[in-house]
Fold:
Amino acid sequence: MKELDIYKIRADFPILSREVYGKPLVYLDNAATTQKPLCVIDKITGMYSTLNANVHRGVHFLSQAATDEHEAARRTVARFIHAASENEIVFTRGATESINLVASSFCRTFCREGDEILITAMEHHSNIVPWQLQADILGLKLRVAPINAAGELLLDEFEKLITPRTKIIAVTHISNVLGTINPIQEIVATAHRHDIPVLIDAAQSVQHCEVDVQQIDCDFLAFSSHKIYGPTGVGVLYGKEKWLNALPPYQGGGEMIASVSFEKTTFNRLPFKFEAGTPDFVGTAALATALDYVSSVGLDNIAAYEHELLQYATEQLLAIPRLRILGTATQKSSVISFLVDGIHPYDMGTLLDKMGIAIRTGHHCAEPLMRTMGVEGTVRASFAFYNTKEEVDLLVKGILRIARMF
Structure:
């Protein structure tokens, strides 16, 4: 591990040098989306400037070159998450579509009325609603594993909820609200003892820590490009080949077919049978650039620095009168959700914004979790490796100033 030169890293992100309302931007909304390094921006510009042609379908030079970039990106993703094969990498529009793909294709193939899907109380809406849609269509039951006051999954209660009718388990790796890091390897091992596949929502984890799908042994894993310094509109679904081969396509159209007649369609090989239509080949190439950038910095270095920043921010925020933090798990990533007694989260967020400080307010697409925690919403500061202790100090100073107004 090496100490990061944060100010050199910040210079790679053009937006961090801008001002908001005449104040230097303090961007602390990284759990919603991360900023993009110049190499990613340049990759997007370069692709459209020099290699814009539809992939997989042309014999001409540009089409073949664009196809090479797109498929090289697939290999980069496979290496990044340690997949056994690039055939296990499906490109989607984001983690949300990845989860919808599994929910739709898996449930209509392997679930019958009365079967159950097990999730946790800390899930993002993207890992709740797709399962609810299938539950309504097929007569399934959604079961929810509880958490404790610190925001940690109660593993004993989790295992008790597994029954012979449980067909799949879907769980977040890291909570986007609480920062809780779930013991996913233990969860997967427990599920596999019952012969149940597991989907991991890794939208909040791949940018913060090393994720090895073979070591975890998960059956599916989903994440979004825009949360790991890549462009919006691109996502990844990892699936073990045995499962992807067993699932029917999620959407139909061009690219995902081997042959089509009016009587019958046969589907393409993996992973293409799940990639209907023209893919965002510019986005996938830019995602690969983002992953290479993160790898060059080093995920171990990123994790160590962000942990240090989280500890510093936690200590500074807890010193503020009337402030309480929601989510105090022993294993926690760089997210802090908090409330200041007597101040509505929206008021806090609006006033911090006028100081140039970008944070998130509301339920963070996790309304059921908010009800579990007994609140309507929170203020959320979420950190990336380009954030600094000086920015934390500005956040604390801003909160103290606002607290004096109420």
The chain has two domains: 6-30+298-405, 42-295. The mean pLDDT is 96. The CA atoms of residues 309 and 389 lie 7 Å apart. Residues 61-80 form the longest helix (20 residues).
